[in-house]
Amino acid sequence: MKDEIKDTNVARDTEEKSYYHQVLSRAKCEKYNASQEDVDWFDIKNYQFTNRIPFKELICELIARVDSANVAYTEGSYGIVSASIFDKIYSDIITGHPTINNYFVYDHDDPRIISLANKMEEEVEISDSGELKFITLDQVRSNIPVRELNISDIHDCYHATSSTEIITVPIYANTSHPCYTGFLKKEDITNETTLTTIQSKNHGIEQLYLSVDLSFSEAQLITAFEKILAELRPHKKLTRRKILDIKLHKILPLMDLIIWQVKEKKRLPLRQIFNLLEGLPVECSDSITGFDWSKFNKGVLRTLEKVLGQGTLLPLLDALDDKTGHYDISLDELQDKAP
């Protein structure tokens, strides 16, 4: 009996720390046992396209879903997804049409550069949030060639952290300001709090604000910058096997299940998520399906965490950048290639 209690506590602690669980917790999703009627919109067969499209399109699908999950939580624009576009994306997802990259266009040489498709521009309401302000800092000489800015350095960033409304930055197509403290209490912030600390506690580091003292040599500046990057991007590039886990563990359909849960403020038991990903009735019991929490966590949830890289997709993007031509092939083609 003691061993069973211990195993349950270990499982609970592990789940609490997982990226998947953190996303649902931030959105204040309540535990909920879904009926088949609740999830009739989801059919794993609709996601076969995931394995056939080139990585250029898959990257767009993944990035759009990361941003959509944030929109579902904030009910405002985020990244490449405006509130109006989200309504269209969400409608497509819950009506069995999960291919959503047609709403966007991406740079063929660098698929992470994504913008709204021309055909959508007239259909979407884009709010005017004013002119972008450029801040001139009073330079104070220090012995540090490159340092990260903190709140006291940039007044506008502090305004974003203390606002009760979502602050947008026009140059990023009305995305939420990286320092908007949606999940961090204002009383926990001091003037010495770095901006990446705020970002990492919210939705992952998106932008890095640095002070660069040009009196140092180029070699010194590069060395200092590389050190900061190493500290703030401690991810490992994905291996070929881990990239293929996107297919094996059905990461893209899992992301749609996350978006639905965040939007509906419901957190389904992992066994029900497992059933849906396996194409089984949602109410099937573990004794019938053979669901194993530990395997699901180590396989599906761990893969989700590694691929998304705290919502940045950096591990995947860096891995593909190193493999010339891989942006043009699909998961199926990658699997067929020799190791």
How far apart lie the N and C ends? 46 Å
- What is the molecular shape? globular
Indicate the structural class: mainly alpha
Number of domains: 2
Main sheet: strand order: 1-8
Radius of gyration: 21 Å
Question: What profile does the largest beta sheet have?
Answer: 2 strands, parallel
- SSE succession: HHEHHEEHEHEEHEHHHEHHHHH
Figure out the total of helices.
15
Which percent bin holds the helix content? 40-55%
Q: Give the strand tally.
A: 8
Uncertain ranges: 1-14, 124-142, 167-175
Strand share of the residues?
A: 5-15%
Q: What's the overall average pLDDT, rounded?
A: 77
Protein name: DUF2971 domain-containing protein
Pfam family, one: DUF6387
Organism: Rahnella laticis
InterPro entries: DUF6387 (IPR045664)
What does this structure look like?
It comes from Rahnella laticis. This is DUF2971 domain-containing protein. Pfam families: DUF6387. Mean pLDDT is 77; it is low at 1-14, 124-142 and 167-175. This protein has two domains: 2-120 and 236-336, no CATH class; 146-232, no CATH class. A hairpin with a 5-residue loop joins β5 (168-169) and β6 (175-176). The protein has helices spanning 2-17, 19-26, 55-74, 83-93, 118-121, 155-162, 195-202, 218-232, 240-248, 251-264, 270-277, 286-289, 293-308, 314-321, 331-336; strands at residues 30-31, 104-106, 114-116, 146-148, 168-169, 175-176, 210-212, 266-267. The strands form four sheets. A two-stranded parallel ribbon has the order 1-8. Strands 2-3 form a two-stranded antiparallel ribbon. Strands 4-7 form a two-stranded antiparallel sheet. It is globular and about 65 Å long. It is 46% helix and 6% strand. The protein is mainly alpha-helical. The protein has 15 helices and eight strands. The termini are far apart.
